[in-house]
Each structure stands twice: as structure tokens, then as C-alpha cells.
Amino acid sequence: MITPLSFDSSLFGYSVGKCLADEDWSELEFLEAAKSYRLVYLFSEVPLDFKSTQIQSVDLRLTFFKNLKGQNPNTTEIYPYSGELSENLLTLALESGGFSRFHTDPRFINREFEKLYRLWIEKALAQQEVLIAEELAGFVTCEVLENEAQIGLIAVRKDHRGKGWGKRLIQAAENFAIQKGAQSMTIGTQTANLPASALYHSMGYQVVQRQFIYHYWG
Predict the structure, then answer these.
(1) For the structural domain made of 64-210, what CATH number should be given?
(2) To bridge 16 with a disulfide, which of 8, 31, 111, 123 should be the other Cys (CB 3.0-4.6 Å)?
């Protein structure tokens, strides 16, 4: 029922697991299985109700999709970055996770959010998946696996917001993906992040999945 997550457990310093709630999911069985974990991520395609206060809703995640076939690359002022992780870039990476469940769940008290997002941007840099705007007005990460691409982190510096950088960052990621042979792009965000959802819709992205996420804390 619960799958151990060795990476998360090692990073956070306590036992972490994940569980996908299907039609046969039982709260009592889940709670019994979860006793050996400090934290369990619980994913469901439908909203769930609980009697236990140990399980709380933390996110309704949206996955956006766009077909890139036949799309011509646009000229942007955003280019691949291969330098070191600077404090400014790290700050932007942390800002990109402002709506993340790892940031909004107050039961994280050991800087788990910062650890996770630092590692995320470091990995993207190592794999040359980071694109930055002029004067570091913003950045985006884009992973390409065969013919599918995915935007991971994206943020615009506070003093450059409202100037169209968000759209240009996504266009740059699409260019990057097309040049590497991708035919589609997905982007994940939180329902609470209304500006991001509006931007993705305006650029032709459609919601293909809604996932309810809960955290169990032991």
C-alpha cells in the first residue's frame, strides 16, 4: 500500500513514503501501514475525507499539456545557462516554489523545502536544463526525455514582473524542447497559483490531470 521513498528519506532525515489511493483504499488500513513512517504523501484522483487529523489536504495539483508539433521556434532573450549556482539564482529557485506543498505545509520544520529546491536547481544545472533571462530577470528549467518535455521550475524576479517575462520564459523552454526533438510539453502547478494557470491557458496549454495530494504525519 505504501512505497518507501529512499531519496526523500535520506534528504529529510526521516522515513518518507507515498501511497496512491485507488477504489479499494481504506483509511484504517492506510493508518496501520503508515505507523512506521514519519511522512507519507497520499495521492488521489478524487477528493478524500478523513477521520484522522494526521492526514491533511496540502495541494490540488494541475498538469498542463501542449502539443508542440508544427510549432516554429520564436526568438527570445533567454538562453541556456551553464554557470555555477549563484545566490540570486538560488533565490529565484526558492521563489518558484512559493505555492509548493513543501513550502505551504507548516508541519515541515527542518528546512525541507530549501533542501529540496536547492537540490532541484543543482540537478538541473548539472544536466544543462536551465535557461535564464537577461540580467537574471527570470529563469526556467526544462527536462527533455525523448519526444516529451517538462517544465520544472520557473520564476520571474519581483522587480521584473508584469513585463511579459513569464510568457517569454515558456516560449524559450518550448524552443529548447523543440530543438532537442520534443513534440509535447507538460507543466505542473497548484490550483492556488492562479496567475500561472491563466498564463498557461493563454499560451494554448490544457489541463490534462487534476490530482489531490494529502500529507500524513506520524
Answers:
(1) 3.40.630.30
(2) 8
